From TrEMBL, chains A, B:
Originating organism: Galbitalea soli
One Pfam family recorded for the sequence: Pyridox_ox_2
Protein name: Pyridoxamine 5'-phosphate oxidase family protein
Gene3D superfamilies: Electron Transport, Fmn-binding Protein, Chain A (2.30.110.10)
Origin superkingdom: Bacteria
């Protein structure tokens, strides 16, 4: 096989793990993430605005398919990424999503103050309790 | 129940569907998307650089968990979003992901020229053949 310059050449240490405490700092600095859920007909994905509070991720959802999916299949993956000093980072939280039942929880989380991604009426507040949180940082070339 | 100003008030026509042809234009104008897959232990999500070509989405993958997931459970959801004239849009492609087996397919897609998200060696090229493509545009407030 001949060398193909269009392929990446392998480079050492170009992906770096981000420690958990820094993952939370990165999450706290952004507001838009993407939520992957298991829908009846396979995986689906939604952009959502979120807040972090007390080691959990909170978002709002209008009554609709996203909420139905999360209720039927609570295990979700949530990803946020950004660029810092020319290096892209990505943090993924995986865990169970649960609709908040009590006003006290809703108010404590700060989620009620969040500007929502889709500006419709949203009365449902959802918490993702992380089972795992992982972060990676990529060297731009 | 008393009015709570922290809640969104409902507004008419604040989410708009994006026609399919425009979805493709929006996809073609970006390069970073998020891939939702079904892993062995539930949904997972990865940021990926991509190209669109001939009505399909192409990305590269290093040998690793993402590729294992896609091989085991080919139905994926892929999301790209952006902001245009102060309005955020989001396009979601759902369909089967398939590893490209032939150099001719790889070269025709243009994917071999793509700068990858994670700059490691990537020898696997994957095509998502859309079953559905949907786009939404949100009015910022």
């Amino acid at each position: 096989m001949t060398a193909d310059p269009s392929h990446d050449t392998p480079t050492a240490h170009t992906i770096e793990e981000v420690p958990e405490t820094e993952c939370w700092e990165l999450l706290a600095g952004e507001k838009l993430g993407r939520l992957a859920v298991l829908a009846k007909d396979g995986v689906d994905i939604y952009p959502v605005n979120y807040v972090v509070s007390n080691g959990a991720v909170y978002f709002r959802s209008a009554p609709g398919q996203k909420l139905v999916d999360v209720t039927a299949s609570p295990f979700v993956a949530f990803e946020v990424d950004g660029v810092h000093e020319r290096r892209r980072w990505s943090v993924v939280v995986r865990g169970d999503a649960e609709r908040l039942a009590f006003d006290s929880e809703i108010h404590a989380s700060g989620i009620a103050l969040l500007k929502s991604q889709a500006p419709t009426e949203k009365w449902n507040y959802v918490r993702i309790s992380p089972k795992t949180i992982t972060g990676r940082r990529f060297t731009s070339r």
